[in-house]
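User: Predict the complex with calcium ion.
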Amino acid sequence: MSPQQVVAAVVVLAAGQGTRMRSATPKVLHELGGRSMLGHVLAATAPLEAGVTLVVVGSGREAVEAHLAAVAPDARPVLQAEQRGSGHAAQVALDAVPDLEGPVLVVNGDSPLLTPATLGALVAAHSAAGSVFTVLTAEVGDPTGLGRIVRGADGAPRAIVEEKDATDEQRAIREVNAGVYVASAATLRRVLAGLSTDNAQGEQYLTDALAPLVEGGAPVAAVRAEDPVDVLGCNDQRELAARRRTLNDRVLDALMVAGVTVVDPATTWVDVTAAVLPGARLLPGVQLHGTTTVAAGAVVGPDTTLTDCTVGEGATVLRSHCSQAEVGPRATVGPFSYLRPGTRLAAGAKVGAFVETKNAVVGEGSKVPHLSYVGDATIGRGSNIGAATVFVNYDGVTKSHTTIGDAVRVGSDTMLVAPVTVGDGAYTAAGSVITQDVPPGAMGVARARQRNVAGWVGRRRPGTAAAQAAAAATGAAAEGTAGSRPDTDGPDRPAEPAASHEQ
Ligand code: UD1
Ligand code: CA
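Assistant: Here is the predicted structure with calcium ion placed in the model:
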């Protein structure tokens, strides 16, 4: 243990089955606020900079170990093959580090609201009191299901009694065990070795470590948490939802204090890992997940979900669903846009209604305003992609890239069959299927020529409203066939300019 380290080890108890969750997912892997329950506990203990962090695993071991490897590779899993109680779990952990000395923090893996401040205060109180075993407690309104802290007439802690083993008198106690302890490794080893299973659940309770120490005259302490909410555990789905709400309230409070506008905190959900800068506005129904960051002056929502996205200053993202996308400063997204991984919108770019993008770079000031799919594409600056354009990037086997230059006008309903390049300043005619490169300044036209069959409606749909309207317009008899011409192509005429649908 180095001099700065206040605890030699952190032991997280995470082997329990979590039966009350009634879920195939191991309890500590349930998520709230962007992290697993276990992830929150590890984040709260991280600032202690313990020499080693041990996580006791058992139920759902493979999944918990895989999760640990991903989120906390430095933490060491220790297997508790049979779940014989929290005391047994702590013992298994200490057995894995036989040479360890000094204070050890033991914490339940199902306490996602713990904060570094609460844990720091507990550790500080432990060392200030010269205690060998210190338990974190809280005064709660409803202590149902929790271990009660029994204090003597002098106020000193005497025992922790589980609810199932408590007398009526003890059940009335509202000071409860938080499931967080600091103890000297040597003391803990000794006392855990002597635990019995003589209790209502037939388990070795970690909580039973306290009473024998008191009886032996060892210095112990019970420290109340400043905020009782911090210590709330999570045993079933209702508690999980309640903890998630509390965590979210904390995140939103901090954002609002810092100057973020949150129009409707009840429908706004921000992960602890997301960042929103002062001056940003979150409208109702917004969810910000993962590493999402929202810059000052940006407006997100209503009804928008962003996962691992970056939203630049002054950008707007309206009623959209985006993941791993970068929205540049002053860019606009939505309503109803779907930005998928690898999307990068430069400053002032626009992606509008019913547009899906993936692996797509949209250059400064360029627009994809309506009803388009843009996949595997690079679009230069100041270009416009007409409505209902599709970047046809997949031939069933491989994906190919499309490059659009600067100041390009892609006509509405263009199919850009990749790999293909449209040069700077080029146009494509509306309705074209572009399979060959369009050089700079050229117009690519690739569509069947139109022919009009004169008088067809009057001949083939006589008596209809269309026929009458046509007759009125042309002065022909509504039902007659006079003046009809054979079906022929019209005269040749040059392709018209692309009718790009631009705003
Ligand atoms: C525990 C405490 C209780 C306290 C409450 C706070 C005990 C006996 N009781 O009760 O006093 O008020 O936490 O939330 O400790 N675990 C293992 N291996 C096992 C059994 C449990 O690793 O064999 C782990 C669980 O995964 C969990 C923690 O220990 O993270 C506590 O177990 P749990 O069953 O949730 O205990 P509670 O009934 O909540
Ligand atoms: Ca629990």
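The CA atoms of residues 56 and 432 lie 63 Å apart.
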